[in-house]
Structure formats: C-alpha cells, structure tokens
Design goal:
With 325 residues, this protein is of the alpha/beta class. The protein has helices spanning 16-24, 34-38, 81-92, 121-132, 147-158, 179-188, 190-210, 226-237, 243-248, 278-281, 311-321; strands at 40-45, 51-57, 67-71, 96-100, 140-145, 167-173, 264-269, 289-294. The chain folds into two domains: 3-177 and 253-321, Rossmann fold; 179-250, no CATH class. The relative contact order is 0.17.
Length: 325
C-alpha cells in the first residue's frame, strides 16, 4: 500500500461502529453547497419502462474533469450523507455529479409499481449508460457504496459485454459481495438490524399506500429479522422462493469478478461489522482490479479526522485524476 493509500483514523474514531455510524450521520452533510444548488432532477427511463430518479449537478463544460455516478447502499438514497459529502468534495474538484436513486429509494416509490430487489441489475446498468451520455468530455466514473458497491462491480463486469464507451474507472467502497453473509451479520447486531428493518418496513408500507390494489404487507410488519422478512416477502413478490437462491443470484465471491473489464478499485476494512474481509482475500482478480484493505474504517466509514471528512473522498479524486489528462 502506497503512502497516499494509507488510512489511520485519529484517537477516538477507530471503533468500527463509530466509523459506520458516522458514515451516515446527517450532521456531516448539513448546510448548503454548490452541488445542491446546481442539481436538477433527471428521470431515466430504461428498457422495460422502469423509471429511476437521479440528481444531476453539472459543471460548466469548460471546467468539467468528468462525470461521477454515485450509487448509494441498501435503504440509503441520493441524499445519504456519504453520497452527499463525496459528491460535494468531487464537485469542488471539478467533477459533475449524478446521484442515482435505486428503485424504491429516496422519494421515488411513485415511479414504479414493482418492488426493489438486489437482482434488478439491468435497469441500473441502463441508467448508468444513460448518465454516461451526460459526460461532456467523455470521461465517466462510477463510485458505489455497500450495495451500491455491489452494483458498481457488476457494472465493471458487464462492461465486457455491453460497453459504456465513456467509462474510465469504477470504485466500490465497502461493497457487499456476499449478500447472505452481510444479511446474517446485520441481523446479529441489534443496532444494524433495527436500522435496516425500520427503513425497509417504511419503504414497503409506502408501496402499500401508493398501490393498495397490489400490496398488503400488514402481516409482514411483525418480522424482527431482515432474513425473516426477506424469506416471507420473496415468494409473494419475486420469482425467488427462498433467500439462499435470491442472494446467490447477485453474490460476487470467488471468481465472480474475474471478467471485470474496466479499471476498478475496491476499498474495504478489516473491521467492517457487516462485510467479512475474508470475502475479499478469496476474490480472484484480474489485472484491472485493485484491492485496498485498511485495518480500520468500519462500513462506509473511513472517517479520517475530527472534521469528519472521509478518506475515500480525496482518494477517489486522486484515482480519477489519473484518467483526466
């Protein structure tokens, strides 16, 4: 690991739960910023009529280094703290920013009648390809976090079959590569289980309010684990009958990423409470895929100082800068 890649959190901020909680702490992204002032809503319509909501913050054409697509984690949104702070930093460095909401995330439930599932990759890939078309100078970057990191890695792999000509580099921070393992880990810790269940149940009830003729989830609200709710929901609303088959369909362990076709950087932490670091050491990677493993950082955290800046904000700028010459 080079000196520029090193991450050492200050005293008091080393704990994995501290790092993980601060990643999403709203106060880190308070106040106004030029990225938000420049943002305009973009609705991207994909092949089967799916509509995904995004927020596009363009730079003046003569100043644009490139366009960065930011992908949030499960039950996050384009307004998640880690998305906003990363977008703000990169916008200040001269990048245009596109913050995409996955289906049923943020305030976008009204756009589609079908529910979100992690298997819905084609619509995200098509949205990414459309967003790439907004890159005025032809330089397009993708950065995903947690489940968004899983999508980012699948975009880098799919690039071998359906090329996005503008794609220069993909980054995945704390990516979920074993969804079943991550779900089991989240269920083991009351804090994470409560956090994700509360947001997911709220999302399901929002769909029920919008489409009462399609959905009645009242009997599912008593489930107290993510895995239990997943097992109950899948047979009702998806082609999958069990969590094992469902999660396996977008698992990226072992040789699943060996065909990655775009320069890619994976960042993770040994102390991530949701993603076992062994998953990454067992990955078969080709020459296009770099792996950065820090001792600390938690999940999506990597908070580097008492100003609560994330290490990966500057790291992404340095990585992307190499493709902006």
């Amino acid at each position: 690991m080079t000196p520029e890649q090193q991450f050492v959190p200050p005293p008091g901020l080393k704990g994995p739960h501290v790092q993980s909680i601060l990643a999403s702490a709203r106060f880190r992204a308070g106040g106004s910023h030029a990225m938000h002032e420049a943002a305009r809503v973009q609705i991207l319509e994909t092949g089967e009529g799916v509509r995904l909501q995004g927020f596009y913050s363009p730079q003046p054409q003569q100043l644009q280094k490139g366009l960065v697509l930011l992908l949030h984690g499960w039950e996050g949104s384009a307004e998640s703290t880690y998305v906003k702070t990363t977008g703000r930093y990169l916008f200040d460095q001269g990048y245009s920013i596109f913050r995409l909401n996955l289906r049923d995330h943020g305030d976008s439930h009204h756009l589609n009648r079908g529910l979100f599932f992690g298997t819905l990759f084609d619509e995200v890939f098509e949205a990414a390809a459309q967003a790439a078309g907004l890159a005025e100078n032809g330089r397009f970057f993708v950065a995903g976090f947690s489940l968004g990191g899983n999508y980012a890695l699948r975009i880098a792999r799919e690039h071998a079959r359906r090329s996005i000509p503008q794609l220069c580099h993909v980054a995945a921070v704390s990516p979920v590569i074993d969804p079943m393992g991550a779900t089991n880990r989240a269920d083991l810790t009351l804090l994470y289980r409560y956090y994700f269940l509360k947001k997911w149940k709220r999302s399901l009830m929002r769909n029920q309010e919008l489409y009462p003729e399609l959905y009645d989830f009242s009997d599912l609200m008593s489930h107290q684990t993510i895995l239990g709710l997943t097992a109950a929901l899948l047979p009702r609303c998806s082609p999958f009958t069990d969590p094992e088959t469902y999660f396996d369909s977008y698992t990226l362990t072992n040789d699943a990423l060996v065909d990655i076709a775009a320069p890619t950087t994976i960042v993770t932490a040994e102390d991530d409470p949701l993603i076992p670091v062994a998953d990454f050491y067992n990955l078969q990677r080709n020459d296009l895929t770099g792996l950065i493993v820090h001792a600390h950082g938690g999940h999506n955290g990597f908070i580097a100082n008492y100003r609560l800046n994330a290490w990966y904000e500057q790291a992404l700028d340095r990585i992307f800068e190499r493709y902006c010459g």
